[in-house]
Amino acid sequence: MEIAGDLMKIVVTIGGSILVQNNNSKNFKEYSEIISQLNTEHKLYVVVGGGKPAREYISMARDLGASEALCDDMGIDVTRLNARLLIMALGDLAFPEVPHNFREAMEYSEAGKLIVMGGTEPAHSTDAVGSILAEFVGADLLINATSVDGLYDKDPHKYEDAVMIKEITASNMMDMLSNKDTKAGTYEFFDRTAIGIIKRSNIKTRIVNGKEPENILKAVFENIGTTIIPG
Ligand code: UTP
Q1: From the alpha carbon of 127, which atom of ligand 1 is closest?
Q2: Using CA atoms, how far apart are residues 42 and 37, in angstroms rounded to an integer?
Q3: Rounded CA separation 175/199 (Å)
């Protein structure tokens, strides 16, 4: 597949729900191959989510009376474990440590290796980490690999006539997401912190179905999924 072109800085955010399935390492392997391929032509930074294990740990912590911030903190630990697994799959290509914040990410990337990180602090999801990292590195493109094809005008799980939106401004997307939940483990489809960052820095963003890892390659040049445009 054609991935060459001018070198771009690309931040890829991979939802935990697509990476971690049935305690199987297969998706980590597949993603590591796609990332390695893309990294030959472009400079990549990767952020991974927590998925089901994060939600399970958060649920146990909540049952034990933990605050929402502490529940988020548990979720962050799980995203970092997932980041470590992806680093293992990437081998020598990746920096061996998971940065805990953006300064560390910048510092570690000086070594010339690919940076893989998870969460940073409570009150947002790894979508937000991806968008902030995109600001830090001045990314040309942010690709968000999630478990659906893109943004729909209404919940596609509830409504058969839901239509996927191919292109949307950050402002319109912010309006659409304004009533969503913000509890630990439940930052729905795309969190508002992320969209706020994308809006203020005009970060070109593509949301694609990550169940097909090849979609990450396609997203570099093809208008697949939902593209968030300035405005
Ligand atoms: P995720 O960002 O993975 O959220 O982080 P998610 O909604 O479960 O998304 P998928 O399943 O990966 O697609 C898991 C949880 O970790 C906490 C939040 O509670 C989040 O729901 N978290 C993560 C933070 O508090 N801060 C972060 O920077 C990242």
Answers
A1: 2
A2: 9
A3: 12
Q: What is the pTM of this model?
A: 0.94
The residue contributing the CA closest to ligand 1 atom 16 is: 75
Shortest-distance atom of ligand 1 to CA 118: 29
State residue 191's pLDDT score.
86
**What pLDDT is recorded for position 189?**
74
The residue-averaged pLDDT of 85-106 equals 98
For 143-160, b where at least 16 C-beta lie within 10 A, e where not — what string? bbbbebbbbbeeebeeee
Alpha carbon of 105 to ligand 1 centroid (Å): 18
Q: Are 102 and 118 in contact (CB under 8 A)?
A: no
Residue type, 226: T
Q: 134 by DSSP, 3-state: which?
A: helix
CA angle 227, 105, 108 (to 5 degrees): 130
The answer to whether 224 and 208 are in contact (CB under 8 A) is: yes
- Summarised one tens digit per residue, pLDDT across range 105-129 is 999 999 999 999 999 999 999 999 9
Q: Which residue has the higher pLDDT, 152 or 141?
A: 141
Nearest to 41 by CA among 223, 175, 220: 220
* Sequence-separated (6 or more) residues with CB below 8 Å from residue 230: 169, 170, 202
